[in-house]
UniProtKB/TrEMBL annotation:
<dbReference type="InterPro" id="IPR023415">
    <property type="entry name" value="LDLR_class-A_CS"/>
</dbReference>
<dbReference type="InterPro" id="IPR057430">
    <property type="entry name" value="LDLRAD1_C"/>
</dbReference>
<feature type="domain" description="LDLRAD1-like C-terminal">
    <location>
        <begin position="171"/>
        <end position="210"/>
    </location>
</feature>
<dbReference type="InterPro" id="IPR036055">
    <property type="entry name" value="LDL_receptor-like_sf"/>
</dbReference>
<keyword id="KW-0677">Repeat</keyword>
<keyword id="KW-1015">Disulfide bond</keyword>
<dbReference type="Pfam" id="PF25241">
    <property type="entry name" value="LDLRAD1_C"/>
</dbReference>
<protein>
    <submittedName>
        <fullName>Low-density lipoprotein receptor class A domain-containing protein 1-like</fullName>
    </submittedName>
</protein>
<keyword id="KW-0472">Membrane</keyword>
<keyword id="KW-0812">Transmembrane</keyword>
<dbReference type="InterPro" id="IPR002172">
    <property type="entry name" value="LDrepeatLR_classA_rpt"/>
</dbReference>
<dbReference type="InterPro" id="IPR050685">
    <property type="entry name" value="LDLR"/>
</dbReference>
<keyword id="KW-1133">Transmembrane helix</keyword>
<feature type="transmembrane region" description="Helical">
    <location>
        <begin position="48"/>
        <end position="73"/>
    </location>
</feature>
Amino acid sequence: MRSNQTHPQRSRSFDAASLGSTVSMLSGREKDCCEDCGSCKCCSRRCVCISVFVLLGLAIMAAAVALAIIFGIPQRTPVNRYCTSNNMTGYLCDDRVTCIPASSVCNGISNCANGEDENSEICTDLPKNLPAYLIFKCGNPQFWIYIDEKCNDINNCGDCSDEVGILANCPSCGANWWPCTSVFYEYCKCIPRSLCRDGVQHCTDWSDEYKCTP
């Protein structure tokens, strides 16, 4: 015969004060958590929003860098160093006054006070990095000379393209030169008058020995 036993029932009531303290503990824990979202596993809505904005900012920066790489970062506007001295094209120094001959650029000697004429930015991979106005391309594309070496009555290109023809567009021989076709490699259409009547043929027609006077 079973005995009637009364089983104790669990109380369904709760202590409001204890619940309040529990809620306070959770809120405090959440607050502490959101102070360091990086290590937070229980972030609040506010903390999540901050994280989203940070990630969005990083994404925008990454996109900007990618676009700069793809389309190229705008380069600084090059300084205009074109100048003329004695009717010859030259290179303008930083003082904006000194104009040195084109052939003095990248010759191993600092002709400008600050040495800008020997700057590696222009003196590396010659003549590619030189300003175009400083060079003259010879008839043979493998050779080039400085612009002030053109029309100086000397065969600097080796094929006389810097002294004869439409590319050079040189004036006629000067007063101290005798016009003729030279038989030597050094000259092209003129020879120095100092070579006239020296007993050596310098012109193909021998005019330097029979017609020319020093």
